[in-house]
Amino acid sequence: MPELPEVQAIADYVDGRAAGLPIRRVDVASLAVLKTADPPYSALAGRVVVGVTRIGKYLVISTDPADGPPTDGTVDVIHLVIHLSRAGWLRWSSNLSPTPPRPGGKGPIALRVHCGLPGEGFDVTEAGTQKRLAVWIVRDTMEVERIATLGPDVMTLTRDEFGGVLKGTSARIKTVLTDQRTISGIGNAYSDEILHTAKLSPFASAKALTDEQVDLLFVSMHGVLTDATVRLEGQEVATMKGEKRSGLRVHARTGMPCPVCGDTVREVSFTDRSFQYCPTCQTGGKILADRRMSKLLK
Which SUPFAM superfamilies does the record associate with it (predicted)? Predict the structure, then answer.
């Protein structure tokens, strides 16, 4: 799942190529991804991309009318908001087919945006059978309920604010880090990396952390995300997934040696997801039960 570093890198990449270009046409191959109907997706045609940004794990492509913003003080911005979810991605091309992708087809393309010269633009794709990719076309990003209910962006939190968030909940720290309504931007992969760096069990109670543990967690959180973001700077979108994987120390490395202590990286699996951790670094050598209702082995 693309998280803050990838979404920020994609936003920067697309902004560097699309900002200032007119949108010539939008093709929708999967109507199911559209979560809004007004404005219609056709309203984007003829508008100009003025910027591409990130809100949490959401990609926001903002457009103005072709003749520029109104001069009477009103606002006429339309945003294309994309949540790539678990298996979504964006693919920029200078050789897009002029033939629209077939609606309801079996291919991965969900949305195609033609902008700039003929052939230029990008596809929004989704792999796998679980279709969770979502697209909104809105005049105000707060119209997207998921954005309106986001917690503060992880990179804007101060140490004191972060400590207040943790003290206000008895949830497990893994849950707190990945709950977008509490803190936005972190997903499954980077929460594993953050907790490994901070030497904390995923099942530790957020409320029970000492001040020293909160300090280390805060530093680890910013350090892991900053390092990942820097690693992706200047990368082509096509290479970002590989760059992300190469920088992970425990996530998706079940059965491999921990790069810090050499212990075997372990996994806890749930119905549709899993997370990884190092027993020596994080749980005092204890193995977390690998079953759906995971509990710490006694």
Answer: Glucocorticoid receptor-like (DNA-binding domain), N-terminal domain of MutM-like DNA repair proteins, S13-like H2TH domain
Task: Please determine, for residue 297, whether its predicted confidence score (pLDDT) is greater than 60.
Answer: no
Q: Which residues does 85 contact at the CB level (< 8 Å), separation at least 6?
A: 1, 126, 132, 133, 134
Span 30-65, pLDDT tens digits? 999 999 999 999 999 999 999 999 999 999 999 999
Task: Judge contact between 81 and 90, C-beta under 8 A.
Answer: no
Write the CB contacts of 298 (distance below 8 Å, at least 6 apart in sequence): none
- At the fourth CATH level, the homologous superfamily of domain 4-148 is MutM-like, N-terminal (3.20.190.10)
CATH code for the part of the protein at 154-248: 1.10.8.50
- 129-181: pLDDT as tens digits: 888 999 999 999 999 999 999 999 999 999 999 999 999 999 999 999 999 99
Residue matched to tokens 């300090």? 215
| Per-residue pLDDT, 291 | 59
Closest CA relative to residue 229, chosen from 10, 27, 61, 68: 10
Which residue from 151, 188, 163 is spatially nearest to 276, judged by alpha carbons? 188
Question: How many residues are given for the chain?
Answer: 298
